[in-house]
Each structure stands twice: as C-alpha cells, then as structure tokens.
Design a protein that fits this description.
Elements (H helix, E strand, L loop, with lengths): L15 H6 L6 E5 L4 E5 L4 H16 L3 H15 E2 L12 H4 L4 H14 L4 H9 L1
Antiparallel strand pairs: 1-2, 2-3
Helix pairs in contact: 2-3, 3-5, 5-6
Length: 129
C-alpha cells in the first residue's frame, strides 16, 4: 500500500497470511434498555451478507409477509453474539424471539445493519414488509 502524500511514514506492506489471520470483525455493544442491558453485534462476512440479501429477495419474490418479517429476526440470529463471539441465540429460538417487542427488534435490527455497514435500503426493504 503506497504512503499517502505528505505522510513521511509508509504503511507496512501486508502479507496474505497476516490479512487472513487478523480479526477484523470486532463486536459492537448495542444498548437495549427495554431488556435491561446491552447485546453484542458482530459484523457479517461478505458471504453472510450475500446470503442474507438473497434470503430477503426470495421472501419478497414469494410475496410472503411472514417470511419477510422473519428475515429481520433471522438477521439478529446471525449477528448477536456472546462475549466469546458465539451465537447468542440458536435457530430453535427464532419463533420465541419473534414474540418480543417489534419496536425493540426493529431498532436492534437497524443498529446491527449500521454496524455491518449495509445500506439504508436494506433496512427500508425489510421495513416495507
């Protein structure tokens, strides 16, 4: 990586091994006052982002409002982790998690979408349904 103009110290040249082994997906604490605490949101890999996008598109194509709403909770299943960066919820928790306050889940979804650097369009598409 070339040094930027005016920068006297050049950034180090990174190796493939270094890049592949660095933890570049730190978790972000997201407050959930309604639940009395904070949850941790992890960034998704590019493959996970693509998989989620495809799930939303498939739900919209099928014109299944229940399935589209479920994709919001499925997203939270993907991104919410414990302190060891392991999934906070299991797939079997999907139905029960869907019974939690919609406004809280929606806000948490939006916050985690922001952590993942996804477009506002992803949020708006999910909110439409």
């Amino acid at each position: 990586m070339p040094a930027r103009e005016g920068n006297k110290e050049a950034a180090p040249i990174l190796s493939a091994s270094y890049i592949l082994n660095i933890d570049d997906r730190p978790v972000t604490p997201v407050p959930v006052p309604e639940w009395g605490g904070t949850v941790l949101c992890r960034p998704l890999s590019l493959a996970e982002q693509d998989g989620y996008r495809k799930a939303v598109e498939a739900a919209e194509k099928d014109d299944d409002d229940d399935e589209v709403r479920a994709t919001i909770v499925e997203y939270l299943l993907l991104v919410l982790v414990n302190e060891d960066k392991r999934a906070l919820f299991e797939r079997k928790d999907l139905g029960e998690l869907q019974t939690k306050c919609g406004a809280v889940l929606q806000r948490l979804f939006e916050d985690c979408v922001s952590v993942n650097g996804l477009s506002r369009d992803a949020v708006e598409d999910a909110e439409k349904n």
